[in-house]
## 1
Amino acid sequence: MVTEAQVWGWLAEVPDPEIPVISVVDLGIVREVSVGEEVTVTVTPTYSGCPATSVITFEIDAALRRQGITPRIETRIAPPWTTDWITAEGRDKLRAYGIAPPVDGTAPTGRRVARMVGGNFTVACPRCGSTETEEVSRFGSTPCKAAWRCKSCAEPFDYFKCH
Amino acid sequence: MADAADLALRMGDSTLILGHRVSEWCGHAPILEEDIALANIALDLIGQAQMWLGLAGETLGRSADQLAFLRDAGAFRNLLICERPNGDFGHTLMRQCLFDGWHLAMLRRLIGSSEPRVAEIAAKAEREVAYHFERSSDLVIRLGDGTGESHARMQAALDALWPWVGEMFTGDATDAELAGAGIAPAPESLRAEWDATMDEVLAESTLIRPESDFAQLGGKQGRHTEHLGHLLAEMQFLQRAYPGATW
Ligand SMILES: [Zn+2]
């Protein structure tokens, strides 16, 4: 008989397909695990159109099948995913990988920010730690990231947007 | 009696058609960052369309894919502004800004919908659309209050798109029933907020708001412009040529 803790442990080994350095648990997209007659895993998508969502479901299914479990995977959209759910460990792993973790409290309000280039908050460079950085584009290589650059070490970097 | 499926079909078709339009820029935008931004926004809109059409399809007995790829123009319920051709980059941004302002206000009201499924989708989409509007309004301001060339292009875009604004705020019998049931706000009730926001954006853009309030109507009832058929011919080609194809 498996326990919920075991299932969480196995899921903590499933990498995010876009950012393989962090797990689907670190990312906060596994919302619930329940073990009864069957094992049910409830996941939530990050962005509505994120192409990684179906891959994540597939990877979770495959990881649990390797443990001899055929899980039921449910998708839940409410409450909507937020970067507040990214674990502290996940944030450290992002930074070590070269992606600046989200700056909490900077989710968009929809209030237009006139001439927003440069941003209205600072993001520390994941390479050198400098806060002499600037936003290049609010929409980066994946829906969850923005493109920034560091003026101290002159390197571009990805910033995981607050959401 | 109108129900959540009617609303979901209208929201799903507007986000799908605009999402497809924006995706036409992929590989063609003036600079790499804007190419990526446009592709990301298209992806958000198409993801939202998938949720809305999924909800509509539960009542209609069809999947989101079937609704997207196997209906003809007359069955689409999108706002006409969503099917307007892209024009130049400024025209695309102006269309996005006018739509995003409405979309954000609409989603914020739908979060309080009497239909929990509608409220859930709206809450999910709202965060994404807040990003869209911050970007589109910012760029409209920078290009409007930019060079002589960019200003002229943005004013031309605003003038050309203005007749397609009124439809966002014009209700029909379906809208009245949806509002009566607490499923969606009356479209007219979003106008004051949109006007106030847009007046601020236009003032800062140094662009002149057109005076005529003439509005082209019909999208929500399935009466479309000639542009939608061409868009569908491309978007639906694969499923029409190879029915049921998957990969
Ligand atoms: Zn640096």
## 2
Amino acid sequence: MATQQVDAPQDAETPEAVVVRFAGDSGDGMQLTGGQFTLSTALAGNDLATFPDFPAEIRAPQGTLFGVSAFQINFGSRQIDTAGDAPDVLVAMNPAALKTNIAAVKPGGLVIADTGEFTKRNLEKAKYTSNPIEDGSLAKWDVLAFDISAQTVEAVKPFGLGNKDALRCKNMWTLGLALWMFGRPRKPIHDWLRAKFKGKAELAEANIAALDAGHAYGETAELSGPLHQCHLDPVPAAPGLYRTITGAEAVALGLIAGARLLRLPLFFGGYPITPASAILHHLARLKEFSVTTFQAEDEIAAICAAIGASYAGSLGVTSSSGPGIALKGEAMGLAIMTELPLVIVNSQRGGPSTGLPTKTEQSDLYQAVYGRNGDAPMPVIAARSPADVFECAIEACRIAVQYMTPVMLLTDGYIANAAEPWLVPDPEAFERMPVEFLTEKNAGDQLLPYKRDERGARPWIKPGTPGLMHRIGGIEKAVDTGHLDYSPGNHQAMTDARRDKIAGIRVRDQQVEVGNRSGKLAVVGWGSTYGPIHQAVLRARRKGMDVSHIHVRHVWPLPANLGDLLHGFDKVLVPEMNTGQFKTVLRDQFLVDAQPLTKVSGQPFQIAELEAAIATYFDEVPGNAGGEEIEPNLQQLPNPEAGHDDGTTPRDLRMMHERDN
Amino acid sequence: MNDMTPITTVKDWETDQEVRWCPGCGDYAILKAVQRTLPQLGSDPANTVFVSGIGCSSRFPYYIESYGFHTIHGRAPAFATGIKLANPDLDIWLVTGDGDGLSIGGNHLMHVLRRNVNMQIMLFNNEIYGLTKGQYSPTSREGTKSPSTPLGSIDHPARPCAFALGAGARFVARGFDVSKNLPDVLKAAHAHRGAAFVEIFQNCVVYNKDVFDDFAQPKGAEDRQLWLEDGAPMLFAGGTRGITLNHETLRLEVVEVTDGDWQTAKVIVHDVTNRAIAHMLVEMPFGPFPMALGVLYDDPVPTFDDMAIADREHAVAGKEPNLARLLASGQTWTVSGTVDESAGHPARGMVSK
Ligand SMILES: Cc1ncc(C[n+]2csc(CCOP(=O)(O)OP(=O)(O)O)c2C)c(N)n1
Ligand code: SF4
Ligand SMILES: [Mg+2]
């Protein structure tokens, strides 16, 4: 995360964090609203995390349930690690948006609805039999329902726009209201609008008028209704240039940075699959960075082409999600056997089989660590958040090349789609690791393609190099010469060499994220559970519980000191979005009594769920006997099924087919 | 045809590895033909890559002194595509079998042909799975008895050249292991810029012995082999018979040619760029017709690798690969504070090394 850790006591009056979800028809510009609100949040110095549900470029029929587009932001005066347990505020621009998002909202939360869109027809499209604003079904929440459409049309009247164009300013009206609620200046948005509508002054001014009108509305409505202003203090953040970044973007940028630090061209072979496709889309636009992208005929061809490219001297990369990774298994074995560098990015999703294409899960850990035939060790790195992916990708590239091995980088559906602030790094600050290809015989007048260096890695020899012709393949290789060799002693020696090479990979010592190096309870996480675990541990510690957070990036090989570290705790709890895979690895590797806490609902852990789980270990802490059961929020994040695929698939096509498979 | 100054001899292409094919296997003859052809092409071992899948045939790279990659079953075309895209200067020969290329790897073979990646593709067709001890293959004739089809196979066989043409191949040729013409066929394949598909009938003496004898055995070969040559009439049996197109049925027919007057007999002149005739030739059933051999079709179009290079040049034109600027793109904002004066970049020092 971008900001520093703040471990301040919680104050009931001013919340330290607020979750807002903007939801509307995909034509309502909710992503724009969310994006600009995010920028204003960042400028206000709050930390934040967002989860966008990208709208498609071509719109679904207006007002339908599957045409809803949503954007959730969690921001606060403390470090923010998740997109939020449940929205405090829902802005619903039509009945469909209300229907698909209301269940997620915190009881007592604020619902702002545009009554102008709650027409009979729209209610029918949203499958409402009566108007929820009038029938009392929203009693659990504070509802502020009024005609935003009419207010907007009124505000932009002086600019002479047609009704349709006028209504398009609704999102700016809403943004104006949101800016007022959180005491944000309008000027940056004014400037942005003027730049966006350069040469179309009347559109710029109309949008500005709508924004201002929404802002002014807040001031008048506050006197009577449920609306009130809320101020969140800035979080002290490291100075510098920031941007928001999604996990998919960070993979693309990290791979490019990694390849450049190694001075290698990047070859990316992919085959479309949710949620991994976005990486291919990003890289396809960045060819000027010596990037070649290849959309193969299937996942097998994608990895095979990437291995071929690595063989020829590029940094081969392939990417997929669970089902596609399964198809790549045999080829990973070949890369392990031929000892060629390769990066495999797995954006995990719910499984098995097609499973839950748009939902997040961490259930491919066994597949990553163990999922190949033969003794086929492979390093596995797991990213914790969108911003963390960048460094993890560079690390994956480094290990792949320095150890001549395929490396798997694990992200997941949440990381791929979520966005967070990122302190833009200076590429100059990273260590350069230029690759040296073998250009001359390496054993007197003999070439030994499998002669190992001090890391246990064999030389990388590009075809095209004079005098170094040799043959490689998947059949067991003789030590040093690489000739075919089935003899028992040789297979033992080569299996050991492959194992030792991977086991000996230098990874940083395991640190403790929060807490101490020993104590009562360690909560051990990997991947995207970082955010909720981190917050839950901070909260539990504020209540006096002796709990520490350990977050593992290097899933394989594990940091050498991790075993000792874990043995320093009375209890070890491993929350995972699977049925306990990392727990098994820890038990196996360190004989430690790791206890699982598992969740596979397709939604990330809520902070509250983890807090409750931690609390069960601390009955002796005053006021904490028993811990409490936490209802999981099944719509904690906006539902990407509503239109997720990063905006590149025509919506009308997706209506006809099972989407996102 | 297309001879270049040799910079190597046949010996230069031989490895020190013990060849492990069964004695009498047709693979030996193909290996020799290739080793004889490469010097004539002016090929450089350092710049030549043999890529194969899995099978007896796919052991080929181990026996050629060049770069070689023995990959996994059926996937050689995908590896070769990656190699070619990463280094288009490499001269790639792909070796596959009827099982490797048309069963497990049919999909990849289709796509490498359709994309037209510049390489020579040799499919050794022995109509059997040799390496796994003789099961019938997708090209085995109906009724083939094998360990997995004790009563004879019931599948309809695939025709490799028809498959290739159907997949969009721009070069399709045929030869057989012991044919003296094989080097010429390989040279033509090499001269074609793009994916050049060559089906090579190969005798698996252990599991499918002599199944090609009906046309390949030297005795009477004249009558049963139609060697195609661009611009020449389709004649066989010493010029006494030819292939004509019946303009009413739109089918090929065998006609008698008297006194060499093939014009009167309306024998077709082979035009290697005629795709319609190529389709007929690859489907021409052996028995009523001779076996069509040599270059059946050759009509180059831009290759995938050339297009990929052009696409890249187009995409990068006028763009500067500035990583710092790329990282700082999108929605940005600045958090002010004391920045290390010596640092040129606001974020310097903040990132881990
Ligand atoms: C994934 C996989 N499945 C099956 C095999 C077993 N296998 C090896 S070679 C082969 C068939 C080879 O037939 P063909 O391509 O015709 O080659 P030939 O041996 O006849 O030259 C099979 C099924 C394998 N190596 N890998
Ligand atoms: S099994 Fe058949 S194809 Fe394989 S080496 Fe023996 S003869 Fe040749
Ligand atoms: Mg075969």
